[in-house]
Structures are given as C-alpha cells and as structure tokens.
Amino acid sequence: MAITFAEKKKIQHLLIPALGIVIFITAAVIWWGFFTTGAPSLQEISVPQRRVQVNTGILAHPILDLLDEPREKTKIPSDVGRDNPLLPSSQ
C-alpha cells in the first residue's frame, strides 16, 4: 500500500514537534552541564608537576649484547609481479 501525500504530511506534522522537543532537551542538558556549575577554584585545577625519569642504564647490560635477530631477514625477490597488472595474463 502506497503512502499518499496527505499521510506523509501528517507524519511530518508529528515529527517536527518531536524534533523540537529533542533539541530543547539537548540544549537544556548542555546548559545545565556547562553553565550552571561554578567556576572551579585554582586549587582544583593545579596539579603538582612531576618529572619523568627513564633509566636507560639497563640497556648497557652485557646479556643484551648476546641477543640476536630471532629469524633471518626476509629476502625480497627482484622479479615480483608484472609490468602492467591490469592487462590480462597471456597463458
């Protein structure tokens, strides 16, 4: 059964107020979330500065010199692929 023009217009008359309500609720939540809270004090914002220290002395350990590559390096063949891969293959 096809939806007539009158039925589409009736559906739109129902959806437009629903969209308005959703927009109003969204705006109210944003307003109360951002603008009604008092400004935070400076003590709440400031965080004491901490310095990060990285111990790189562990990398000079003699056991690390004994480690090797876990596998051989991959050798890439020189004749991989075709000159034009879009042309059909001639077999």
Account of the protein in words:
The protein is mainly alpha-helical and 91 residues long. It has a domain at 1-33. 42% of the residues lie in helices and 0% in strands. The chain contains 3 helices and no strands. The chain has helices spanning 5-34, 42-45, 62-65. The radius of gyration is 34 Å and the shape is flat. The mean pLDDT is 81.
Specify the structural class. Answer: mainly alpha
Largest sheet: none
Q: Please state roughly what percent of the residues sit in beta strands, choosing from under 5%, 5-15%, 15-25%, 25-35%, 35-45% or over 45%.
A: under 5%
In whole angstroms, how far apart are the ends?
56 Å
Helix fraction by DSSP (H/I, runs of at least 4):
40-55%
Specify Rg, calculated over alpha carbons: 34 Å
What's the number of extended β-strand segments?
0
Mean pLDDT: 81
Uncertain stretches? none
- Total DSSP helices: 3
**Basic shape:** flat
Encode the helix/strand succession as letters: HHH
Features:
91 residues; mainly alpha; 3 helices; 0% strand
